[in-house]
Amino acid sequence: MNTLTIDIRKAEPSDARDIAEVHLEAWRGAYSGIIPHKTLTSMINRRGADWWANAIRRAASVLVVEIGGTIAGYATIGRNRARELRQQGEIYELYLRPEYQGIGLGSRLFAAARQRLKDHGLKGMVVWALEDNENALAFYAGAGGRDIAEGVEVFEQKALKKVAFVWE
Question: CA 131, CA 138: separation in Å to the nearest integer?
């Protein structure tokens, strides 16, 4: 019998290549057909291993979920960037490789990210998701988030609505 361990930890610069792969796979899976192809490809290509290694070295808060030694997903967290919302913390990104979605790893990573924000003294949390990303909307609503605000992101002159979910 093989036992797989699941570990959620702070990312290290040596994780950068794996995180870049997760980013590529997850963003293609989540945003193909939503964000225009040219823009999506450009956004993915900007975030290679060097970009991630620099982000981790600059003390960006990046968490990874590792299953059996393989990085299956990541989350980036920090202070809320939307001044009009009173929540102090924010999960900027939370992504899993497509083959690891739907088995509870996202929920575990979400809970760890939320706890890390709380441990840093940040009260309340916000997460933004594109309105056309139905999987993300269902995930955050299922995690108890309240949909309280909308915004817009523009990609190649294509305006896409985004939704803010909050937790107190």
Answer: 10
37: domain CATH number? 3.40.630.30
Domain annotation covers residue 1: no
Helical segments of 58-133, H only = 105-119
Is residue 64 in a domain?
Answer: yes
Residue 51, SS3? Answer: helix
Whole-angstrom CA distances from 161 to 6, 21, 30, 133 are 34, 27, 15, 10
Give the chain's domain count: 1
Tell me the mean pLDDT per 10 residues along the chain, length 168: 84 97 97 95 96 90 95 97 95 97 95 97 97 96 96 92 97
